[in-house]
Structure formats: structure tokens, C-alpha cells
Amino acid sequence: MLLVEKEVHIPMWKGNVSLLEYFKETIKDKLSPGEIPVRFVVTQSSSDTIFCELGILIGTNNTPALSPIPLFEFVPRKIENTNEFNAVLLVPTGIGAEIGGHAGDACSAARLLASVCDTLITHPNVVNASDINELPENGLYVEGSIISRLLMGTVGLQKVRSNRVLLLIDKHKDRRIYENTINAVSAARVTLGLNCLLVIEIETPIKMHAEYSTSGRAVGKIDGLERLCRVLSRHRSEFDAVAIASMINIPNKADENYFQSQGDMVNPWGGVEALLTHAVSLLFGIPSAHSPMARNLEEANKHFGIVDPRMSAETLSVCSLHSVLKGLHRSPRIVVDSTIFGYPGVLSAADISCLVIPYGCVGLPTLAALEQGIPVIAVHENGNRMKNKLETLPFPPGKLFIVDNYLEAVGIMAAFKAGVAPSSIHRPLGYTSVLVEGDDDE
What we know:
- With 442 residues, the chain is an alpha/beta fold.
- The chain has two domains: 2-58; 59-442, no CATH class.
- It is built from 13 helices and 21 strands.
- The chain has helices at residues 19-30, 107-114, 124-127, 144-152, 175-192, 225-234, 254-259, 270-284, 297-300, 312-316, 322-329, 364-372, 406-418; strands at 2-11, 35-45, 49-58, 86-89, 119-122, 128-129, 132-133, 139-141, 156-158, 164-170, 195-202, 207-212, 218-223, 241-249, 288-293, 333-335, 346-347, 354-358, 362-363, 376-379, 400-403.
- The strands form four sheets. Strands 1, 2, 3, 10, 11, 12, 13, 14, 15 and 19 form a ten-stranded mixed sheet that branches. It has a six-stranded parallel sheet with strand order 8-5-4-18-20-21, with helices on both faces. Strands 16-9-17 form a three-stranded antiparallel sheet, covered by helices on one side.
- The longest helix is centred in the middle third of the chain and has 18 residues, at 175-192.
- It starts with a strand and ends in a 24-residue tail after the last helix.
């Protein structure tokens, strides 16, 4: 099986159907037989064209047991549950976000937003900082494609006390790198109380190649995914979540250029990692996360001096695995049976109070929030490579809030929670509008 990125251009939406339905039908026409989309993003919008990039899975015909839920499947929520205030915080992987585009450098933003939530749902890219993970106590660590499906209304999240975590690792020719990885698991078992008694070394590793798309996003190509899928299928009853530590081939000197770029270069590893975990979680319905494994000791021992603070966690890590293990330790179970949505401990789209994203990001979470009537808060200060004007999307009045920074985002969230219209806090306060309508019979 092969995972690749595909760029497609489609005509601008004319408003004759819902925007989400338009993407569903238009993208379907752009796929070749046997291609299954696992990731979708709008990178740029012009007056007449929408530029999209798709993560595509090819070659599942020889693996009949795998039957992924269609990426664009949507179930509208019937109510909004206001018993709790639950927010989703997203910083999409591989877009070069100023905050959250490097190594867990959105952790502090997550902790801030969590302070006004009952539950903050976020994903590995926000809180994974190599061997550091500062997920808030009321945070849920959820793989990005599962967050999309949560907002699309097709899955729920069941809070758990802990998971049985399986670790898959590449067979490595360097014994020291292998031993560091096993020691990282042991350390998590001791410090977290992690249940990870099973580590499987894959004899013939999958091949992961990091690349960049024409939009500047970090993307990639993965070959041999069927080998990983066979292992997961064989041991499916033995684990609740899967961590994957594997080698990633990056362009020549990409690591040196990245750490010397002072934050101007997009992290080369994240895009292909997201492509892998999207596919695994979509195919198996399980929490998953990836950790890059050094290809050799020379790479593991490289010294980059004092780097941009946002990258610093990556220079200190031995094997970049602890954040993944900590996140998966209590990552929520994925629920597909809609009859138990709303049960105690199960969150669904009806329980989501708002979505917080960097400005310009348009993907399934943004489109789903628009369709579900979930307010979206877009943060201008978190600049990135995406070139979309969110104001042009058909948000109903009072459903899109564009703010300067995450401090202001917290204020908007607190207003939602208090039932206070954010506009009522601004001055000058406009006069109350009065609309006069005539008699329909005249």
C-alpha cells in the first residue's frame, strides 16, 4: 500500500449546495479508481479556483479486511449540549505555523485555553515536544483525523483511565538507537504507569519520505504500509492505542537547514508523520501517534548550538518518544456507535462549544464546524502557509470570530461560556437595529 499527496484544483464554489457537500462531490471526481482520501486541506483560494491537497491511500484492494469510513461522511448534530464547555484546539501539521509549527511550541497556548474549558480536545502536533508533553489535565490527546470525524459527527470520544499501548519500531541496524527506544518505553512505564508490555520490531520497515508541496506544506510519501497493517491486524486484541517509531528520509541537509532557519522553515518531519497516523487511525479506528527514529548515530548526535526556542525541545531529545507515549496513555477511545453518543464520559459533535484554529486554515474541521453551527475562532497572530480568507466562507452571523492572538481567543471563549455576546463588550456599542417589514398581502 502506498500513501502519497495529490494536488487538485477545483472551480470556486457558487453556493448552489453546501460547501462541504460541494467538496465531497467535486473531490470524488478528481480521484482515480482505488484511491482513498485520508487527509484534505485547502491551501489557497482565488476568485475562480480552489487549490486543494489530498493525502491518498492506494492499494487496499489486496487487504479486504480494511474498510475505512469515507473521509467526507457527515452527520449533522441535532442539538448543542450546553452542560459543559468543551473546545477543540487545532494547529494543522506541516503548515509552518508560527505557534505550534515546530516542537510542541503551542503547549502554553493549550494550557491557557484549557483554563476556561471543561475539556480541551487537541492533537499531537500541539503538545508533542519530543520528550516533553504538557497536555493540560483536562485535555484530550486525539489524532487529527479523529478530530475531523468528531466534528463531522461520525465518531464520539470516550474518556478512559488508561490504554494498553502497542509500540511498533523499525528494525534498526544500530543497537544503541534500538536500546534507547526500549529504555524510553521502560521510563514511561515507571513514571506514567504506562501499560506497554508489547513492543514489536518490524523486520522490513515501511519507507517514509518527507517532501514539500508547491504550497510549501510539509507532505510526504509512504510505501509498504501493508506490512504495518498486517502486524496491527494480527495483534488487534492486544492493544487500545498504537505508537509508531520509524525512520524518515528527509531531503539532504534538511535538518541542518531547519534548525538554522530561526523558525522560517517548515518542520520537514511533521507532514509525513500526519499522513501515516491519519491512515492508521482511519483504517483501524484507534488512537495513534508517530515518533521519528534517528537513521544513524551521526544523525542522533548532531549538535545545532542554541536554536530558536520553539525548536529547542527537539535538540535535547534522545529518541523523541516520551511525548507520544504520554499522550496515548490516556487518549480517548473512538466510538462509532452513535446510539451511545451522549452517555456519561462520551463526547460527540453535540458537545463541542467552539473550534480554535490559525487564521487561513480550511480543512474538514473548519468545514464541519461551519455545517454544525459550531463557532470558529481564528487567530491572526498564528501565521502559516495557508492562503484562505475565512471571511468569504458562508458562516452565519456570530459564528466566525477573527482575533489577534490566543489571549484574545480566551476572552471570546470565556464570553461564550458566560453567555455574553462578545460584541456587547466592545465600545462604541452600536444602536439596536430595527427592521420594518410590510404586510405580505400588500
